[in-house]
TrEMBL record:
It comes from the Bacteria. SUPFAM superfamilies: NAD(P)-binding Rossmann-fold domains (SSF51735). PANTHER family: CARBOXYNORSPERMIDINE SYNTHASE. Residues 141-401 form the Saccharopine dehydrogenase-like C-terminal domain. The lineage of its organism: Bacteria, Pseudomonadati, Campylobacterota, Epsilonproteobacteria, Campylobacterales. InterPro entries: NAD(P)-bd_dom_sf, Sacchrp_dh-like_C, Sacchrp_dh_NADP-bd. Signal peptide: none annotated. This is Saccharopine dehydrogenase family protein.
Length: 420
């Protein structure tokens, strides 16, 4: 039915490619391409042995738009799934515009030289996508991605109005290393060490530090300034901190009636201690420094030293819990729910050879591609996940390995059990 080109060969790519092969009725041809072709070949071998599905492989520099254009033409691809680095989103979008094929990614664009990530430059390509008659689906991972769909499903099917959303991301996995990141270290550490932000409809309190970040409704906090202990279903109590995450940018625009939206993530004391030490000695810097006559970027050098996230699968035990606490009105009455997914790292590895953080991103990447391939999600231009009917995606989650649950909560109820 569809000819899919997947660019990137990390843990997320591995999962997305395995899941695409499991859906071979939809994806009749799959090509996996990366700067390091040997990584693609290893994934293709794994899939051939497990599923008896052939995956074509290729070498590609995702920073080179013309090279990507040539690869698209060579493979005849109809959809490009970008699971490479967020720095490469714009060049890959440009390749799709030139070849008139659909584009899907899992995270928004990041500036290589500035620790800031935003949808602005990708949204600005909306007219070009419309002129090319193609669809750009942004953020089809878990967060962003599934969390956006959770919110859309609640808005479309469960509530008349949504007023408050808290997104909570817990990884209770243990990989046994003193310090490692569960996805690209450079991306992860830039994200976590940045100032936090959340969106609210009004900000009249004198204690709110409102910034001018494209809106006067963003409240900025210091890194890890706001935190609490939260009792995650099926996992237990974990230290949880507010930080900025990209889905807030689109959800604050697209969920009507919203008064406040925040994002929280769990971190252990050891992780935060290591990160603070690295920051204090300059290892999280994104600018070039000279070392023995050679220009290096400290955070990129650190990435080389840390364990490859794709190698963590065999070592990681435990579970993830990612979900949304959503409060609003239904039939004139207050309503609150907790909608979430729990994923087991060892089960993910047994199926795909990757740990749960890669799994929870790679599966939604495939689902987004599948809905576009089948024309269930369609349109011309650039879209975020919550702009489509959520139910087809929610149905796919239940059959593709990311089953979700809903807890009906009392309005104002919280699973917060203490301060940090």
């Amino acid at each position: 039915m569809a000819n899919l080109l997947i660019i990137g060969a990390g843990g997320v790519s591995r999962v997305a490619t395995v899941k695409a092969a499991q859906n071979k009725d939809t994806f009749t041809k799959i090509t996996l391409a990366s700067r390091t072709k040997s990584k693609c070949d290893e994934i293709a071998k794994f899939i051939k042995e497990r599923l008896n599905v052939d995956i074509q492989t290729a070498e590609i520099n995702a920073d080179d738009t013309e090279a990507v254009v040539n690869l698209i033409k060579k493979t005849g691809a109809e959809i490009l799934l970008n699971v490479a680095l967020p720095y490469q989103n714009l060049t890959l979008m440009d390749a799709c515009i030139k070849t008139k094929i659909h584009y899907i990614d899992t995270a928004n664009y990041e500036h290589p030289d500035t620790p800031k990530f935003e949808y602005k430059l990708q949204w600005e390509k909306d007219d070009e996508f419309k002129k090319s008659g193609i669809l750009g689906l942004l953020g089809s991972g878990f967060d962003p991605g599934v969390t956006n769909v959770f919110c859309a499903y609640a808005s479309q099917y469960l509530f008349d109005e949504i007023h408050y959303i808290d997104i909570l991301d817990c990884n209770a996995g243990d990989h046994g290393y003193a310090f490692a990141t569960n996805f690209n270290p450079e991306i992860n550490l830039r994200e976590v060490s940045a100032n936090g932000r959340y969106w609210k409809k009004t900000a009249n309190s004198s204690s709110d530090r409102v910034t001018n970040w494209d809106s006067d409704e963003w409240v900025e906090t210091k890194p890890m300034e706001i935190g609490f202990k939260w009792d995650y279903p099926e996992i237990g109590v974990k230290d949880t901190y507010l930080l900025y995450h990209e889905e807030l940018e689109s959800l604050s625009k697209n969920i009507k009636g919203l008064k406040q939206i925040r994002f929280f993530m769990t971190f252990g004391e050891s992780y935060l201690t290591h990160m603070k030490c690295l920051e204090n000695v300059g290892m999280l810097r994104v600018d070039e420094v000279e070392h023995n006559g050679v220009k290096i970027v400290p955070i990129q050098f650190l990435k080389t030293l840390l364990p490859d996230p794709a190698s963590l699968g065999a070592r990681t035990k435990g579970k993830t819990n990612i979900g949304c606490v959503i409060r609003g009105l239904k039939d004139g009455k207050e309503k609150q729910i907790y909608i979430y997914n729990v994923c087991d790292h060892e089960e993910c590895y047994a199926e795909t050879g990757a740990q749960g953080v890669s799994y929870t991103t790679g599966v939604p990447a495939m689902i987004g591609s599948k809905l576009v391939a089948k024309g269930i999600w369609s349109g011309k231009g650039v879209f975020n996940m919550e702009e489509f009917d959520a139910k087809p995606f929610m149905d796919e989650l239940m059959t593709q390995g990311l089953a979700w649950k809903i807890i009906e909560m009392k309005p104002g109820e919280s699973y917060k059990v203490g301060e940090i």
